[in-house]
Each structure stands twice: as C-alpha cells, then as structure tokens.
C-alpha cells in the first residue's frame, strides 16, 4: 500500500502538474472516448500502456477472461451495462476485445479443475464453455503454450460473435458507424496482434514510423 500512496503523490506532483489543462478540459467537457477497450483483469495487461492512450481516450472494461456474455433480453450484468453505455451514450466508434497470453481464465477453459473451489469463476466461464470442445476438435496437434495461445485467440473471436448479438451493437455495425476488432497481447514480447478476417488469422500490428527515413 505504501508504494501506491507514493505513486499517487508522484502522479499529482509530476503528471497532473504538467497536464492540468487536459484534466480541466476532461472535467468540464466530460469524457468523449473513441474506443471501448475490453480486456482481462490480469494485472499484467495495461490498456493505456499498450496503446499509449491519454486520459479520456479509452473507455475500459475489464473482467476475468475478457468475456462478453451473449445478449439475453431483460438480463443484467456489469459488462453488458458498460457495453450499452459506451455504444448508446458515449457513441464510441471502436470496440476492441483484447486477449493475452498466459491467461488464468484460458488455463481454466482447458482444464476446468483449475476453477475448483471458485464457484463464481466457474459460473462466469460458462460463457466460454464451447471453446474447449472447439480446441479439442480443431487443434489436436497443439500442446503447451501453442495450445494455450490458440485457445486465447479463439476466445477473443467468440467474444466478438457475442458482441454482435447485442441489438445496439448490431445496429451500429449495420450503419457502418461502429467497428469491432479482436486483439492478442503477448506479455513476454510486448507484441500486439489484430485479427484479420480476410486472412482468418491474427497478424502482428506494425505501423510505419512517419519520422523514419
């Protein structure tokens, strides 16, 4: 806790002190993020760090396994509520579902016994129950880290499909005013991969540096 307290003081004395106008504008004008970034609760995954985003640029939703429960009328849930608010009130233009390597939720999908004694986790991961069967069917030759990464990628794709079941998301997609992307973050290398539907694979995000010769 002491480290966090010192970090708070450092934020106020350094970052906030040099960005007072930004925070004043955010306080006056409110938030106007362009992107909803939905990712795992894992402490090693930091959306603002990965994207170099400033305060006010990302509307962030985090949960175990970066899961989007399928739309069910008259149901409630924190993820669904945040999704609705981002799309209907904030009018975000992008939704990114970002999975990652070495994910505990993915390990529990592959081996449900890892969730023994964790009834809330087990119930939450029911939204991913079909993924293990898919892995057992399509990725029979993969083992170890390769199998885990494939599961994390398939989980991201499943959540993108769940997103499309929400009427307000489907409406914006049909209008062409909303874009959804699936990302994978590799913790050990810092690399980020974006799913390319035309190639049906995750491809490494590479952006040309305009300042390079």
Give the CA-based shape. Answer: globular
> How many β-strand stretches?
6
| Structural class by sheet pairing and helices | alpha/beta
What average pLDDT do the residues reach? 94
* Relative helix content: 40-55%
Strand content: 15-25%
Order of strands across the biggest sheet?
A: 2-1-3-4-5-6
Structure description:
The protein is of the alpha/beta class and 213 residues long. Helix content is 45%, strand content 17%. It has 9 helices and 6 strands, in the order H-H-E-H-E-H-E-H-H-H-H-H-E-E-E. Strand 1, helix 3 (47-51) and strand 2 (58-63) form a beta-alpha-beta unit. It is globular.
Q: What does this entry show, briefly?
A:
With 213 residues, this protein is α/β, with parallel strands linked by helices. The chain has helices at 2-18, 20-29, 47-51, 78-89, 104-110, 119-124, 129-138, 144-163, 167-175; strands at 35-40, 58-63, 94-100, 179-186, 191-196, 201-204.
């Amino acid at each position: 806790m002491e480290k966090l307290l010192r970090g708070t003081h450092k934020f106020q004395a350094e970052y906030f002190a040099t960005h007072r106008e930004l925070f004043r504008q955010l306080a006056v004008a409110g938030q106007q993020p362009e992107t909803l970034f939905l990712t795992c609760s894992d402490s090693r995954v930091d959306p603002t760090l990965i994207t170099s985003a400033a305060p006010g640029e990302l509307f962030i939703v985090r949960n175990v396994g970066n899961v989007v429960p399928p739309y069910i009328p008259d149901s409630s849930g924190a993820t669904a509520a945040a999704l609705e608010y981002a799309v209907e009130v904030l009018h975000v233009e992008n939704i990114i579902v970002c999975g990652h390597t070495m994910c505990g939720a993915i390990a529990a999908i592959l081996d449900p016994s890892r969730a023994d004694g964790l009834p809330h986790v087990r119930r939450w991961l029911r939204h991913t129950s079909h993924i293990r069967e898919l892995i057992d069917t399509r990725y029979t030759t993969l083992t170890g880290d390769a199998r885990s990464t494939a599961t994390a990628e398939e989980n991201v794709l499943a959540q993108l499909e769940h997103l499309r079941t929400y009427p307000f998301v489907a409406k914006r997609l049909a209008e062409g005013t909303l874009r959804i992307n699936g990302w994978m973050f590799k913790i050990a290398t810092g690399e980020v991969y974006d799913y390319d539907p035309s190639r049906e694979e995750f491809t490494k995000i590479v952006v040309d540096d305009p300042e390079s010769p």
